[in-house]
Amino acid sequence: MPQIPRAIARHPAFGPLRTLRTPRRVQDFLDTIPINHERRGETCSSPLVTLRRRSAHCMEGALVAALAIWMQGGEPLIMDLKTSADDVDHVVALFRRHERWGAVAKTNHAVLRYREPIFRDLHALAASFFHEYTLPNGKKTLRSYSHPFDLRRYAGDWVASSDPLWDLERAIDRSPHEPLLGRAQIAGLRPADPIEIRAGKLREW
Predict the structure, then answer these.
(1) How many Cβ atoms from other residues are within 10 Å of residue 151's Cβ?
(2) How many Å apart are CA 168 and CA 146, to the nearest integer?
(3) Up-side HSE of residue 110: CA atoms within 13 Å toward CB?
(4) pLDDT band at residue 4 using 50, 70 and 90 as cut-offs
(5) 48-57: long-range pairs with CB below 8 Å, 24+
(6) How many Å separate Cα 180 from the centre of its chain?
(7) 179 Cβ partners below 8 Å, 6+ apart?
(8) Furthest C-alpha separation in the chain
């Protein structure tokens, strides 16, 4: 797999990312970036545009995190968490420590956040998001998770493009996914408790 190009590693806009030596520090940095409310329309920005604009939603934050991890010698891996049709997918950046998986995440909610590298496989990591992934009526909506999407395989410029990355978003959405549960399990799901629903309404930005 190709390593990070020198021009990207030395780009002035990515200077703050060069100091982020661990996924924990990547998450700490990501938490300082305000949420992108997309008030002027939907966006899907490269890390360069995101850092210059200084706001990010989950996909944009995951790309910034993946770039930071790549700059420190890791793999720029993305995982898509796919929901039922009445909810919105979530995207996280993956990393591994001591043969265990963790995730860096950007969200405006109290849940769906950073995951410590304690998970043996991606099914377990994805399942850790399941119970808190609910609608206001208590419906639990998480359905599947993608195989690790290696951004080095993407043909376009996902790092510094000035154009929206809709092609990349579609590629991740269409990449192979694994189900978290079957139809019988879905039919038997218990709705979230009222206190869980209230907790899910907390916003950071």
Answers:
(1) 22
(2) 14
(3) 11
(4) confident
(5) 48/11, 48/13, 48/14, 48/159, 48/160, 48/161, 48/162, 49/161, 49/162, 51/13, 51/14, 51/16, 52/13, 56/30, 56/106, 57/106
(6) 17
(7) 143, 144
(8) 52
CATH architecture classification, 6-200: Roll (3.10)
Contact yes or no for 204/113 (Cβ under 8 A): no
Kindly report, residue by residue over 121-170, the tens digit of the pLDDT: 999 999 999 999 999 999 999 999 999 999 999 999 999 999 999 999 99
Q: What's the angle, vertex CA 97, arms to CA 156 and CA 158, rounded to 5?
A: 10
Taking Cα atoms as reference points, which of 156, 149, 142 lies closest to residue 174?
149
Q: What do you get for the CA distance between the two ends of the chain, in Å?
A: 37
d(CA 90, CA 80): 6
Map residue 82 onto helix, strand or coil.
Answer: strand
Spatial CA neighbour of 89 closest among 181, 147, 152, 169: 169
Inter-residue contact 61 to 47 (CB < 8 Å) = no
156 and 170 Cβ atoms separated by less than 8 Å: no
Q: Specify the pLDDT at position 34.
A: 98
Facing residues of 177 across strands?
146
The two three-digit tokens of residue 162, written as one number = 């000035």
